[in-house]
Amino acid sequence: MDAHPAAEVEVKQAGKIKVGDHVPNFSLPQQDGSLWQLSSLIGQKIIVLYFYPKDETPGCTAEACSFRDQYDVFTQAGAAVIGISSDSVAAHEKFAAHHRLPFTLLSDANGEVRRLLGVPRTLGILPGRVTYIIDKKGVVAKIFNSQMQAQKHVQEAVATVKMLQSQQ
Question: Is 65 a catalytic residue?
């Protein structure tokens, strides 16, 4: 008996996402409480999907503000920036307002999407800081993993988005 094709994709890719893989679809609540779905952007935009440990911590705030400061570069290149942590919808709403973040923040309270994509923990305890750049076809073009170099995620994302834009 054959398994459902979507289930196969998720089982095959859970925790194993690599450059060249199609990113599996998921949905999570965003800071305004509405449900956001990855598939809504596939075919429309390049996606900068960044996972970070926690709202209002020094490294995460610096990273979010760096994405904010480069937001025009991303939008002009046809990219959407999406931040994900396990913080609540309410915490994301406050964080976004406090730092004037113009992009979507998603609440992965149970860590399901982290596990689906294979975002590792740092030292086995801290939620990892990983950025995925996904092309318009839904294929992972770049993965950058660095817990300590929060702002370098933005530099890597800008370079990759510009490269993808030039290939269109």
Answer: no
